[in-house]
Structures are given as structure tokens and as C-alpha cells.
Fold this sequence. Notes:
mainly alpha
Amino acid sequence: MRSPALALAWQLWRPHRWGFCAIGAGLAVLATLCRILPAASSKSLGPLTGLLVFWALIYLLSVFVYSDLSPGAKHAGFPARMFTLPVRTSVLVAWPMFYGMATVALLWLAAAWLVLVPCGLSPAHGWWPALLCAACVACFQAIAWTLVGSPLARLVVAVLVLPGWVLAGVHSAFFTSLNGLVTGLVGAIAASYVVAVAGVGRDRRGGTPLVVWLLRRLDGIMSRLPRRRSSFPSSARAQLWCEWREKGLVLPLLLGCFMLVLLLSIPATEFDALLLLRVLAAVLVLPLVLASFVGFGMGKTSFWAKDLGLSPFAATRPLSSGTLALAKLRTAALSAAAGWAVMLLLTVLWVVLSGSWGQVAKWWGLFCQGRGAVEIWAVVPLALVGAIGQTWAQLAAGLSTALTGRAWVVNGVTLLSLVVVAALTTAGVWTASHPDFLDTLVGVLWGVAAVALPAKLLAAWSVVRALLRQRLLEATVVAGLLGVWVVTAGCLVGLNYLLIPDAVAPIHLLAAGIVLGLPLVRPLAAPLALAWNRHR
């Protein structure tokens, strides 16, 4: 290849060709179903297409920012091996940025005109999101190549930039002029290119990255602060302190950064009551979704380590596998509590400062009508304990999977989870457009629960027996873990009983779903997974 454009295109295409083909195949299947299904049924494909576009955009961001080239490295900017290519820095930056913008723009246009517009999307909103996605990719590339020098900072940028761009664009499209939105996005793309060329050129000349310079100054300031002088009362307490320092703040940091951008980018005064309720509901679900991904990193020796296996330093530490795993589980509990504290504090601050407290108080008054004092004041503790407990369970499930040290286990669990979520989403969307299918769906769910519930309880009992037989954990500790799960499940069942009328969803069906959906086996199996990883 004599053309730099073709060479860089091949470099991006070759390692990720199967991912690109999978995205194209998914769009092709949805477009085909949109043509062959009746009009009433084809409208249910819109949410599935939006979900596909969202996950495809996340995947494409990781591709075009070169995040897979140095996943365990401390510096994660533009790949250093490409600095030796015989092209100017402007060309070296331009083509990957162009390919990224073009790919995400074509992804949206294909999804919009093949599926979303036939499903009811207005043609007026069929093109400008493509420019919004392109600006999002360009801005993310510029920041990742110029300002950030660590994978953690890159993840924070992803959490900040992606929702910030999307919300700002949607806000501008619906509340301000569309021409102003287009002008702003074009300007953002041009500014991103200039910033990226300047940052990559600095790294290419061997200059010190901005984040490295800032970290050195921060280390100098932190070194002057008083440090811990007393010794730890036990080795388990020392391990807990080590785990918290390395990974405990990841979830609260990500949630805090996301909330600052999400809640400050659009004032709540511009939302009506229904839209405000939906935004608050989505915000409160965020910790549960994010915990599933953060948990995988918490189970590794280093949050950004490429290898799932334990390092020799961690594997030979004079602690039992049960003690090491218990320190990780306790760190997950502290991280879940800190994350929810940050989330609730910023949410309340946003509601108060935006003047929406009156609407929230009105909802509380409607909830209190016809209810006793016990029911009213039981909602808050049930919701808080249930949310923190479920977030801990999600973190513990992810770290237990990563503690196995086997990539095929992590990939298998991830694939199974995606299949279950896709199946439930499809069934929910189909039932929403076909109410007569509800009785059939309930029957199918009860059949699945009749098989899955005994299997889950039997697996949990087998794990408990293995823990006690191998003396990885004491019986009191195992009982404590089971007690946390029972309390969390009970709080969630009680909360659903108070909030959801029985005519909408029977409480026994909700209880079965909570018992099945709340992770139990994987949190209990964390010491077994660590022992399996430690002695392979």
C-alpha cells in the first residue's frame, strides 16, 4: 500500500473486521424484520435498534481511539509505534479521526433510514444525530490523545464526554435552533482536530504529557501532607486498605463525573413532570448498570491489567484465598455505599438548585395519600438499603468472575448476560405493542422461574459446602454474606410491594424476578474463584 490513507484504514479494519461485520449483520437483520413484519409489530424494533446503536457506538469509540493497543499501560495516548510512520502529524491524526467520524455517522444513518424512520421516527431527526455522533468521536479522540495519559482518565473522559455531547446535542435540537447546533458541532470537530494534532505532535517530539506533568505536581503536594503512621491491627485490615486505595474510588469517581455533566448540562426547569420523572429514574439506575462493568476491573490485580491472572506478588502474599477475596468483597461494599452517597447528594443538589423540588414534593404527597405512617417512612430505608445491596451484589458478581483468571469464563458470563438482557428487552417491547401476549409471557416466565430458582439455590448450597469444606471462610462469615443477600432481597421485595400495585404486577412474580436477578452464587464463590486462579 503506497497510500497512507489505505494503510491506516487497513490497520483499523484488520483487527476489528469481525466486530464491524457483526454490527452490519445486526442492522441487516433489523432492517429485514422491519420490512417483513406488520406495521404494528415493526414499531417494536425501534428500541432494539437504539440499543444496538448505543452499544455499537461504545465499541467504535474503543476502536478508533486505539484503546486496545496498550490496555495495561500507564500511558494510553496515541500509539507510540505509529510515530515512526513517514507521514506528517496532521495526516497521522486526520485519517483515524475521519474514519471514526465517518463510521459512526454511517452507522446512525443506516439505522435511522433502514429501521427507525419506518418505525415512526421523524425524517427531520434522521440526519443531525449523525453529525452529533461524529463530533462525539472527534472530541473523545482529541481528549484521549492529548489530555489524558492513563486508562482510568480515559474512562472518566468517556463517561463525561459521551453523555455530555448527546445531551447537549438533543437539548440544542429541541430547545434551540437546529442551525446553531450544526454550527456548534462543526466548530467542535475543527477544534478537536487542532487539539489532537497539537497533542500528538508534542508526544511525537518526546514532550511530557499534560496529565503526567499534573500528576507530578499533585504527588509533590500530597507528599507534604501527613501520612499514616500507626500499624494495621491485622493483615486483613491492611489488605482492605490496599484494595480500597487501588480500586475503591473508581465507582464513586465515575458516578460523580457522570452526574456533574449529566445534571449540570441541562437545567431541570425545562423538563415537564413526566420527562423529569424519567430522567431521575434513569439516573438512579445508573449505579446498577455501571457496577456490572466496574466489578470486572475490581477482581483483577490491577484495575487496568491486561492479564486476568494474579501477579506473583499477589499470589504469594501470606494470606489465605478467603481473606484476599473477603477484602475485595468488603471494598465492593464500601465502594457501593460511597457511590450512592455521591449520586444522591448531587441529585438532590440538582433538584433543589433547579427549582424542581416542588414537583418532587408533589409526587411525595401523591404517594402518601391513603398510606399509613409505617408504609410512608419505610420506603426511604428500603430503597437505600436495597440499592446499596444490589450495587454491591453487581460489583461482587463481576469481581468474582474476573477472579477466575480465565478469559473464557469472563466472555461466557458476559455473553450469557447480554443474551438474557436482549431476550427480556425483546419480550418487554413485544408485549408493550401486543397486550394480548401478556398472559403467555407470564406463563413462560413462571416456567423459567420454576426451573431456575431451584437450580440457583442448589448452586448456592454447593458453593457454601465447598467454602466450609475447604475452610476458605468461617461459617459466621458465610452466614453474614447470606444475610446481606437476604436483607437486600427482602428490601427490594418490600419496596416493590409498596410502590407497584398488585394489579400492575403480582408481588409473587416480582419476588421471583428479584431472587433470580440478584446475584448470589458468584459473590459467594469469590474465594473459590481466587483459589482456582491462585493455584493454577
